[in-house]
Design goal:
mainly alpha; elongated; Tetracycline Repressor, domain 2
């Protein structure tokens, strides 16, 4: 008779994400995972397949949640420009609240594991394309509604705003001064005017 799992997989993924986020992939050992997650090695391997597979599941969960949060932010705002302002303001607020200056899990993963890990590289490209496509779609909606000038290149602006969004999160790790970050965002979002 197979043994039943004595843990909640979703809770394990959240704990594992926090550990990987804090320590990074390479510095997180199997023993760190076992200790932090409160499960034995056999359960870790049986359920998740090992450190790499667990990291991939954690990363995919984070990516999906991040994309959902970005879409939700735009849905809550009455205008496209307000959606972008809110999205960047939330990033600044998160940086201010991040006492350990952990930064963005995706950005950290990019800087730690690229180049070298093709599976993660592919996931990062997909994440970039997903967020850029959300941005481009919002800009096109703004152009269609007349909120954004019809002469604007939605694709180029979408790519640039993704770079600003990612770069903001890197800068916030180095210098989380909200005044400086808000000035940067104001300059960057002026492209929508």
């Amino acid at each position: 008779m197979p043994r039943t799992k004595q843990f909640n997989e979703e809770e394990i993924l959240i704990k594992a994400m926090e550990l990987f986020w804090e320590k990074g992939f390479h510095a997180t050992s199997i023993q760190n995972l076992v200790s932090c997650l409160g499960i034995n090695r056999a359960s870790l391997y049986d359920t998740f397949g090992g450190k790499e597979e667990l990291f991939s599941k954690v990363f995919e969960r984070y990516r999906k949640k991040g994309g959902d949060n970005i879409r939700s932010t735009f849905e809550k705002e009455k205008s496209i420009k307000a959606g972008f302002c809110r999205l960047f303001e939330e990033a600044i607020e998160n940086a201010e609240a991040d006492m350990g200056q952990k930064g963005c899990f995706v950005v950290n993963t990019t800087t730690e594991l690229i180049p070298g890990d093709e599976t993660i590289h592919k996931a990062l490209r997909e994440n970039k394309e997903n967020i850029e496509n959300i941005f481009i779609s919002q800009i096109r909606k703004g152009i269609a509604s007349g909120e954004i000038n019809a002469g604007k290149d939605a694709e180029s602006i979408g790519h640039m705003l993704f770079a600003l969004f990612s770069g903001l999160q890197v800068m916030a790790k180095v210098d989380p001064d909200p005044t400086k970050l808000r000035k940067l965002v104001k300059s960057g979002l002026s492209v929508l005017d």
